[in-house]
Structures are given as C-alpha cells and as structure tokens.
Amino acid sequence: MATILRVTNLTKQYNSFTAVNRISFEVKEGEIVSLLGPNGAGKTTTIQMLLSLVSPTSGDIEVFGKNLKEHREELLAMMNFTAPYSLLPYNLTPREALTVFSLLYGVRNYRERVKSLVDEFDLGELVNKKIGQLSSGEQMRLGVAKAFVNNPKLLLLDEPTASLDPPTARQLRARILNLIRESRGAVLWTSHNMREVETVSDRIIFLSRGRVVADDTPQNLKKRFGQEDLEEIFIIIANEPVRESL
C-alpha cells in the first residue's frame, strides 16, 4: 500500500514548553489510524500542524510524497477534517454551508455532491434551518458531511462522534467507514471512546506528553500490555512515565 501521510521528527515548542516532541509515524492508503492520548498529550497540536494551522518548530510532514510546507495549497485540496471545536457559520443553512465548502474546494457538479451528502448523512429535515438552531449532535453530523465534500484522500477526524448518543454514533461511524472504503483514502482518527477506536482502527498510535509511546494494531497492543481492554491500556499509558515506542 502506498504511504499517504509520513510524519518525521515533528516537533512543536511554545517557548520552554514542548507540546509535540519529535514524533514520527505513517498512514497508508486505505488505513485508519487512531491517534490517542490523555488531554495535553499533543493530539490536537499534531492535527493542527497537519492542517497547516500551526507551523512546526522542526520536522517534516509529507502528504502523497510531497512536503506539506512546499506544496500546501495543492495538498490541502486533497485533504479535509472535522473537529468539535471547528464550528460552521451559524447564519448559514446546512445546504448553504455544504455548497460554500464545495465551491471552495472546486468540486465539480457541486449541486449533485451536496444532494448526495444530504442524503448520506440524513440531513434532509435540517437543510433549511440555520446552523445555529441545530443541536450539537446535528452540527457534528453536518461537520462530518462537510469533511467529505471533496472526496478527500487524507481525512483527519478529531472526535467525529462527540455529542452523539450511542445509536446515532454507530450509524455515523458506519457511514464514515462506508465512504472511506469507497475512496480508499487514509484516515487519522482521534477519540476518547475506546470501543469506537477498536471498531474502526487498523492501527493505534498512543501519545503521552508529546511523544509516541506505542504504535501497533489493537490486538498487538493488548498482548504487549497484557490487557483485554483498550481503556485499561489508555490509563496505564496516561499514568506511566514517558517511554519511547519500541
């Protein structure tokens, strides 16, 4: 499988504080990799650097074999993301928001694409409401739909099912996985829901205090830590001193 994303010795420092400390990892075509860690581990900072929202202090990010800094506009056009902290304009309707983002990404036949996403994510009853009138769960579904407007080959999903009840979260995961399989894209997924992580992940990367401390399949991580539950592994890693990944 081709490597879609390669991160090498990525570091972000804020004065004397190191938020991300020389992390390296890859995500291959068709692979879903979960990026996990306790609050303050460096997950959000890493995603922000991958989106060029924050500049790395040092290190390299390659997407499709090209340096992100040197080919930013070209590469970001093939990427997309969603996150609970990334709010869509409250004064637009979902249909208007999806149309605007489709146009920003240069989507051909954007009207058909918007209609397809409205149907795929069950947004039909919401399309003419103002986004500010939607519940947090409805806004989350819309945010995920927005992330697919350009059929991205690299998708960054930061807590994509936050604010959703279990049945709705399950339905949304199924739709996400279906679209990912169709596109053969690569996904970097963050979540605090360990059952969700185990369901979707081909591989898991654990961060602790800005460093990668584990990178393996869910099954191998369970064997390595002698646990049957990813949540217990999460707790162990959060409480242990930082050790480099083997």
Can you characterise this structure?
The protein is globular and about 50 Å long. 40% of the residues are buried. Strand 4 and strand 5 form a beta hairpin. With 246 residues, it is an alpha/beta fold. The protein has nine helices and ten strands. It has a domain at 1-71 and 188-246: P-loop containing nucleotide triphosphate hydrolases (Rossmann fold, 3-Layer(aba) Sandwich). The protein has a six-stranded mixed beta sheet, sandwiched between helices. A four-stranded antiparallel beta sheet has the order 2-1-4-5, with helices on one face.
Short description:
It contains 9 helices and 10 strands. The protein is an alpha/beta fold and 246 residues long.
Secondary structure elements and their pairing?
Elements: E1 3-14, E2 17-28, E3 32-36, H1 43-50, E4 58-63, E5 66-67, H2 72-76, E6 79-82, H3 94-104, H4 110-120, H5 136-147, E7 154-158, H6 166-183, E8 186-190, H7 194-200, E9 203-208, E10 211-216, H8 218-225, H9 230-239
